[in-house]
Amino acid sequence: MRRHVLSLANEVWLPVAILGGWWFLSTGSESIYYPPLRSILSTLKTDWWFGTATPDLAPSLEHFAAGFAISVIVGVAFGLFLATYQLAWEILRPAVELARACPPIVLVPLIIGMFGIESSGKIILIVLGAVWPVLLNTLDGIRGVDPQLLDVASSYRLSRRDRALQIVLPAAMPQMMVGVRLAASISLIMVVASELFGSTSGIGFYLLQSEQTFHVTETWAGTLVLGALGYLVSIVVRLIERRVLRWHHLMRATAHTQGS
Amino acid sequence: MVGTASIRMSRRSTLIMVARVAVFLLLLAVWEAVSASGLLNAAFLPPPTQVIREVVRLLGEVATWSALGQTVKAWVIGLGIALALGVGIGIPLGSSRFLYRSARLVVDFCRAIPSIALLPLALLVFGAKIRMEVFLIAFASVWIILLQTIYGIWDMDPRLLEVMRSYRLTRLQRLRWLVLPSISSYIATGLRLASIVAFFVGIGAELLGGAPGIGLKIQTAEVGGSVVAEYAYAILAAGLALGINLLMARSERRIIFWRGAERLEQQ
After folding, report:
1. Which fold has domain B48-266?
2. Chain B residues inside the 8 Å CB shell of A234
3. Average pLDDT for runs of 10 along chain A of length 260
4. What is the ipTM of this complex?
5. How many domains does chain A have?
């Protein structure tokens, strides 16, 4: 019990100290750029806690969810394809490497120019940014599957489909999850970037508008909302990862105990 | 036997090279066809021939090179700050369990903030200047280097520490001769990953925030309605990104190779 309390105190003292320090240092602040934390929090409450700006969450979250989901599906599908057909990968490799190296943010004005500021353009932008880590990590994961495992699978005469679903994909899963995690954070960045470039709703729009009209307290509040959203996304992805990879961790744990 | 096999191999690789070129030509042809067909808004999709001509023309202009230079300058400064802070804070965090657990929540939170989200705030505080871009780059990349440094310290051989302790080195000597060389490959990997994020955020700060550089050129072309120039600048930015990627990957490999060789010698 005492140990739990101590370890909890160890984890939280710094965040508490930072927030406390921010609160006290900013109290009565006259600077337009650094409003008191108290007024930032009250703006947060009136605008974002079921307040006037809360509906702005919907388009941002929708675009995020759609873009992220498409990136994962397309990335896994193409990763599987390219891992199966070695020749196709060798031919397409330079094109893929080139596309991946291109910072997706330079595409923002081009794609929005082509598709307008509606959802379709924004979702395309997210996919163009987030699909590559999924694709490349799927490919790497599958190519890295232990050949012995494949030998065992073929000696059991598993069908092609069973082999893919029950042997190859699970074995490649840890590496694939690395790509999924990257894709989640890129998706969120692309949502914000596309909204900052041009939009009529969304968190990015709220941020942009408050910045351009010098509503600094709102800018701080919006930034905190996005920070919290980013943190939430990373926690959810980590939970999914833990669930998906539970057998993997179990297997490693047994391997370790057997080894030592 | 070997002869025919190697001939077959080289024939295969020639075929692959030809196919690779064909893929690029095919992509350009599709672009040209879509642009000519007016399937998408033609005003926003100029034909590749025009864009390539514009890229060549822009490469002959001093203004283009100075914009590329500004982008690289902010990237170098921001990444340098991130490197100094990340390694400087990462070493104590990696060496002390108490410090690591104290900082964990703060680092996790800051790392998860979508870096571009800080742009409006940074614009208010710093204005549309290089300082703003440097701040965003440093903020986005410092966490990656910090974590790599911590992992590097965790991976250090404890026996090495003991041996060095018996030599009675000062703290600074230990840092210089033991810690930094041991974690250099981790830092190199962190630096490579961070450099990509840094470039991405830097272009964002220019394109969306108006800091000087190649990203701002894309934005001004867009505002001025010259779509061909917009595409040309975007291609130049992508080319710079590719160059930076290759450079960082090569220097990482060199550092890791050097470390690997040193490890082998030690064995």
Report:
1. MetI-like fold (1.10.3720)
2. 108, 111-112
3. 86 94 89 90 89 89 96 95 90 90 90 85 95 94 85 80 82 92 95 91 92 92 94 94 82 60
4. 0.88
5. 1
